[in-house]
Amino acid sequence: MSIQLFDLTGKTALVTGSSRGLGRAFAEGLAAAGAEVILNGINEQRLTTAAREMSEAGHRVQTAAFDVTDDDAVKEAFSRFDEDGVEIDIVVNNAGIQFRKPMLELETADWQRVLDTNLTSAFVVGREAARRMVERGQGKIINIGSLTSELARATVAPYTVAKGGVKMLTKAMAAEWGGLGIQANAIGPGYMLTDMNEALTSNPEFDAWVKGRTPAGRWGKPEELIGTVVYLASQASDYINGQIIYADGGMISVL
Ligand code: NDP
Fold first, then answer.
1. CATH classification of the domain holding 124
2. Which of 84, 175, 217, 219 is spaced 20 to 30 A from 190 at the CA atom?
3. Does the structure show a pLDDT above 60 at 2?
4. What local confidence, expressed as pLDDT, does residue 1 receive?
């Protein structure tokens, strides 16, 4: 096997929610493999800082600030890409939020917000990208699921439902677009050290639970997902479609 299989030179990748956390690591990994990367988020200052840092590290990077839950904003962003001649070869649907509340206390608006951000956004961004990818007969879509694509945990019901949906959306994309040259796959990270889990890592009880429950005995680091995203973005995975790869230190495999 040649290492060229993982070369992304000449490709352009849009990574949603890449101002920080896992998205930033995905963007850095894809850039290191040769892709030009478009960073996305809502907070423009964070986005600009991330782009500057990546650019200083020698990567080719642009920014596109838009809210992935806003259908019109997503369409406008893709229209701007069209006007600027930017052709997106790889999309990582990573933007997400978590909201912890028992279902008995959960308002419908909060349920909807979590579904919009974690699930519907992947459909909307994926659809806009795929409409253009089919014209070129190729494209890679990588959706970010979670352990909760498979397992339910109390107090995160809408997140669990959204991530379960991400798994099935990935299969639906593969079913509809696989014959058009697009591969859609997903990554299901375990418990990772990012802002999203700040309250959990600083809770000694939860910290001990994660370490005890994960065969690896520790939280995951965002950079540990880079190999998986580069693989799924590259020609090395051209015959893989509709799959979810759990990168979780083994947690999902054990009782
Ligand atoms: P963070 O909270 O660290 O970062 C979230 C990112 O998403 C930020 O860049 C944020 O942008 C962006 N974002 C949030 N809402 C929107 C929106 N409406 N439109 C555009 N961008 C948005 O999260 P993580 O890095 O931890 O998580 C990334 C993904 O990985 C999520 O889908 C999450 O569910 C998933 N995941 C995370 C795990 C973990 O343990 N951390 C485990 C399993 C899955 P801004 O800076 O502008 O707010």
1. 3.40.50.720
2. 175
3. no
4. 53
Residue 200: helix, strand or coil by DSSP? helix
Check: CB of residue 244 under 8 Å from CB of residue 149: yes
H or E element that contains 12: strand 12-15
Calculate how far, in angstroms, residue 95's C-alpha sits from the geometric centre of ligand 1. Answer: 4
Q: Using the mean position of ligand 1's atoms as its centre, give its distance from the Cα of residue 159 in Å.
A: 12
Q: Is 45 close to ligand 1, i.e. is its CB under 6 Å away? A: no
Q: What average pLDDT does range 83-89 have in this prediction?
A: 98
Q: Is 118 helix (H, G, I), strand (E, B) or coil?
A: helix
Q: How many domains does the chain have?
A: 1
Is 253 contained in some domain? no
- Has residue 97 been placed in a domain? yes
Phi/psi-derived region of residue 191, left when phi > 0, alpha when psi is between -120 and 50, beta in every other case: beta
Cα 231 to Cα 253: distance, rounded to the nearest angstrom: 22
Q: Which domain holds residue 134?
A: 3-247
The values of phi and psi at residue 185, to 5°, are -135, 170
CA distances from 188 to 50, 129, 221 (A): 24, 21, 14
- Give whole-number Cα distances, 59 to 33, 50, 55, 250, in Å: 10, 11, 5, 32
174 pLDDT above the threshold of 70: yes
Q: Could you tell me the pTM of the whole model? A: 0.98
